[in-house]
User: Fold these one by one.
Assistant:
Number 1:
Amino acid sequence: MTVHSEQLNTQGVQNETAEQVVVAETIEPTEADVEEMIQKMEVSISNEENQILESADDRIEGAGTSANIDPEKAESIFTVGGFAERINYIKEKIKTLATETKDKIKSFVSSEPEVIHFKDMIPEHIATTEEIPVAEAEAEKQLYPEVVPIQNVENTEEVVETPEQKEKRELNEYLEREVFTKFNLTAEDQERVLAETPENRREVLERSFENSRKSLEAFYEKQVVVGAVDDYDVDKAQKQLMYNTLASVLEDGIAEIKPKLLGLGLDVSLGSLGFTPETADRDDLAGKFTEMNNRVRSAIRESMEEKIIRALNENGEYRGITIPTEEQMRDENFMEQRSQQIKQVEYEEIENISNEIGFPEWISQTTTKIRRTIYFYKS
Amino acid sequence: MSDPKIQQKVKELESIMLQYKQELGVLDKELFQAISDYQKALDEERLKEIKQSLNI
C-alpha cells in the first residue's frame, strides 16, 4: 500500500507538471524575484543619481580649466551669472526624485513572511538547451526594466535628430570637408576626434580649425591638427598651433643661416631667443625676429671691426686706412677725412659680410613668411 | 501571495521605474543645458580676453 500510495503521489505530481508546461510558457516571477528586482532598482537609482551628479561636478570643474580662465573669475561668473543657483536647484530636484522613487519602491516590500512550499521547489518545466537563452532573455526583460537607456525612453516611436546630434553631424561634415580630407586624417582619427570633442565647443573649435586651415598650409602637419584637438584647452591648442607654425618660420630661417653665423661666432637658436610655446604669439614672433636680426647685425659689425684691427696690426694699413701718426692726430681735417673713410669701409665690409652669409636675402624671405603668418592669424 | 498579485507588483514597479527614468531624463537634460550655458559664458569671457590681447 505504501508503495502504491507513493507511486500515486508521484504520478500526480508528474501529471500536474505536464499540464503546467502547456499553460506556462513564460517564467512567472516569484516574491523572491520581486524583492531582488526592488533591490536592483534601488541600486540602479542610486548609481544613476551619483553618476549624473558626479558627471555634472566634473563638467563644471572642467569648464573653468578648459576655458583656461582665471579660477576666481570662473567662480565669479558661476555665482554672479546665476549658474550656481540654477544648477544646484536642478541637482536638488534630481536628489529628491531619487529619494521619493526609492521610498515608493520600498513600500512594495512584502510584510508577509515568505512560505516556501514543497511544490514550488519542483521545476515546472525543464528547459531544453534551445529554450534557455530565450527564457533568460525574457527573464532579463521582466526583472531589469532599467536596462532601457534613458535617451530611448522619450524617442521610442520615432528617431528625431536633437540639436546636439545636428551640431555633431554638422561638425562631422565640416571636419570631413575642410580638415580631415585636406590633411589626410584617417577615418579612425576622425572618429576619435569626434568622440572626444565636446559638442558645445563647436564654435571655438571651428575657429581653431579655420585658422589652422588658413595658416601657412605649407607648414601644416597632421600632428598639429590632431594635437589641437587632443588639447581640449582651445587657447592652449591655439598657442600650440601658433608656436608650431611660427616657430617653424624661425627654425627654418635659423637652419639656413646658422652655419654662416657660427663662422661669425654667433650661435642663435629658438631657445637662446627665448621663443617658447608658452610665450608664442604673433607679436612675440615679430619681437624675436627683430632681436635675432639685431644679434646678427651686431655679430657682423664685431666681425668687421676684428677684421680691420687685425689688418692694421699686421700690415699697418687696410684699404687706405692707416694708423695715424701723432702729427696726423693733431690735424683735424685729416682725422675728419679718415673718419669718413673708415665709415665707408665699415659700410662696405658689413655689406660684404652680409652678402657672404646671405643675410639680406634671408631677411627678405623670412619677413615675407612672417608677414604671411601674421596675416593669416589676423584674418 | 498569489501569482496575479506578484504580476501586479512587477507591473507597478516597472511603471514607477519608467516614470522615474522619464523625469530623470528631463532633469539630466536641464542640468546638461545649464552647464553648457555656463561653459559658453566662460568661453565668451576667454575669447574677449584673447581678442583684447591680440588687439582685434
Number 2:
Amino acid sequence: MAGEKKLDEWGTRFGVILAVAGSAVGLGNFLRFPGQAAQNGGGAFISPYFCALIFLGIPIGWAEWTMGRYGGRKGFRSAPAIMGIFGRGSAARYVGSIGVLIPVAVSFYYTFVETWCLGYCWHFLTGGIGVNPQAAIAEQTGASRAFFAESTGFGADGALFRLHNLETLLFFMIVFSINISLVYRGISKGIEKFCSWAMPSMAVCALIVLIRVLTLGTPDPAHPDQNVVNGLGYMWNPNFSALGNFRTWLAAAGQVFFTLSVGFGVIINYASYLRKKDDIALSGLTASATNEVFEVGFGGMITLTAAFIFLGVTGTTEAVSTGNFGLGFQTLPVVFAHMGSLGNLVGAVWFFMLFLAAITSSLSMYQPALAFSQEALGLSRKPATAAMAGLCIVGSFGVMWFSKGGVFLDTIDFWVGSFLIFVMAALQIIFFSWIFGIERGRKEAHNGALIRIPDVMWFVMRYVAPPYLIVVFIGFCVQNMKSSAQLIAASTAAKLALGLIALTTAALLAGVRIGEKRWRAAGLDIDDKIPLD
Amino acid sequence: MTAGGWIFMFVSLGIVWGLAVWCYRRVFVSHRTSGNQLDDGS
C-alpha cells in the first residue's frame, strides 16, 4: 500500500512542470496556432492572443492548480470530488464529472491522431509517403491526400479494419499500450519520468526542423518570391483591420484556452499530487511559458513558413483552409518531399516531434480517469487501469470504425473537446473565486510559493475572467452551434458519437454516486466543512 | 515581410522566450537553494 502511495506522487519540481507543460503542448501548438493567426490578422493576432493569455489562460490556470493542490490535501485526486469541495455540495460533484469526461472522451480520438503521427514518422523513416516532387503539384497533393485517407480511414467507415489495411490498427495498439503502461507505472515512475525526457527531446526536434526551415533560402529560382523572409511575412505581417472584428478576439481567446489545457480536468488532477508546501505559483507560470515557447516560438515560425516556401500564397492559403489535419498531414508531407535528400529525415523528425507532443498530452488524459476509478470505486491500481483501458479502447475503436470524413471524431471534438471545456473552466473559476472565496484562494495559492502572484491577478480572477469567458463562450456558441446541430441531424455517425458521450457520462455519474456514498461512509470532509489552513 | 511583421515577430518571440527564461531561472535558483525534490510533508 505504501508502494502504491509512492506511485501517486511527483518526484521533482521540474517533473511536475514538464508533465503539465507536456499535457498542454500538443498538435494544436504546431498546427492550429499558425492557422488561426494567419486567418485572423497575422502578427496583429498576437495582441488579442496575449490579452487572452493574461486575462484568461494564466489566471484560470493558477486557480486550477490551487484547486487541485487543496483537493489533494483533503485526500482527493479526481475533478468530481475536488469540484464538490469548491462548489460545496453534491451538485458540484456531479457537474465535476465533466472534468473526467473531457480527458476520457478526448482520448478516444486523440490516441488515434497520435497513431497517425507515429505512422507518418515510420513511413518517412522508411522512404516517404509516395509523393513525387517532380510531378505536377496537383498530383503531389493528390498522392498525399490518398495516403492520408488510407491511413486514417477517412474514405469509408470500417476501412481500417479490412485485412489489407491493418497497419493503422497495429500502430494504434502500439501507441495505446505505451500509454497504458506508462500510466500504470504511476505519476513519478511513469508520467514524470517519460515527460522528463520527452519534453527536452521535443524541443530538440523542433529546433532541428526550425533550423532546416530557416536555412531553406529560395529553393526554387523560378519562384524567387517564395523564400524564407516572405514565408515568415505570411505568418507575421499584421493586418490591423482584423482587430476590429469580434471573430479575431474570439479565435485568440479560444486558441489560448485550448492550448493551455485549462478547464480540461488535467491540471486539477496533476496538482492534487502536490503537497502543502510545494510551489504552484511559479510552476503554473513556467508550464504556461513552456507551452508558449512551443506555440509561438516554434509553431509560429515553422509550419506556415515551410508551406509558403514550396507552395506560395495560394497553396498555403488553401492548406490553412483545410484545417489542422489538412495542413499537418496532407500539406506538410508535400513540403518535406521538396526538401531534397534530407526531406524524409526532416519529415521523420517533424512527425516524431508531433508524436511526442501528442503522447505527453494523451498520458494526461488517461490519468484523471484512472484516479477517478480508484477514488470513486475503491479499486486498486490494476483493476482501475483495466477498467479505464477498457472504456478508452471501446471509445477509440468507435472513432476508428466510424472514420468516414472524420465526422464521429469531429463531433466528440466539438461537444467535449471545445464546448464542455468552456463549461468546465467557467464552473472552476466561479467556484474558486465566488464560492471558495478569492481571499482563501490567494492564501492557499501562496503556500510554499516561489513567486508572489500579483494582486491585480486576483481581481482578474474574480471580476474579469468569468465575464470574459462567458462572452467568448456565447460567441463560440453563436458561431458554431447551428452548423453542429445540422451535422447531428444529417449524420448517423454524429448521432452515434453523441450516444457514446452520453453513455460515458452516465457511467461517470454512476461513479460519482458510488464515490459520494463511499466518501461519506469513510467520514471524509467532502463539502469542505472544516477548511484547511 | 513588412517592418510591422518583423516588429510583431521579434516582440512576440521576445515575450515568450523572455518569460520562459525568467521562469526557468527562478526554478533553477530554487533548485540550487532548496533542491529539486518536492516537499516531503515533514
